[in-house]
């Protein structure tokens, strides 16, 4: 039975969504094409009808996962973003959490296409986190962008370090709290650094 173009597109989107979650949870090398397709509800043979290579899927799934983080961050004030991002809830949500924190180290060793998706995702997140970046003179814009980039790199690094610790390790929580407090304190003297998300 031949499927419609709409159904083929829906199937492709399901594979990309599934891959995005599995890659974040297990890493790029921890997921084989057969396992991925089975998790999406398809046969292994259908993969190459939809994608040229696993690398193509990795790039598309990175864009998908980063777009989810950007969408969740849109409209959030920077302190609100930091409180959630550096929470235990986000740290423990590997499959649905930030793609940059889950796969940034892996992405550095991947194709240009995968790395380009990460770079575009970083730019998109900076745009969401630094809406004032478009206002004011060039110096103000550059400073606002630098602050947002510092905040994002600090937050991503904190999640990576916390996840590297055993789940029940007090150090995992200490990393999150210390980095959250430092980032919030750097944003505004009126921010209460110790507030929980």
TrEMBL record:
Residues 9-69 form the HTH tetR-type domain. Residues 32-51 bind DNA. It comes from the Bacteria. InterPro entries: Homeodomain-like_sf, HTH_TetR, Tet_transcr_reg_TetR-rel_C_sf. Keywords: DNA-binding, Transcription, Transcription regulation. This is TetR/AcrR family transcriptional repressor of nem operon. It comes from Paraburkholderia caledonica. The lineage of its organism: Bacteria, Pseudomonadati, Pseudomonadota, Betaproteobacteria, Burkholderiales.
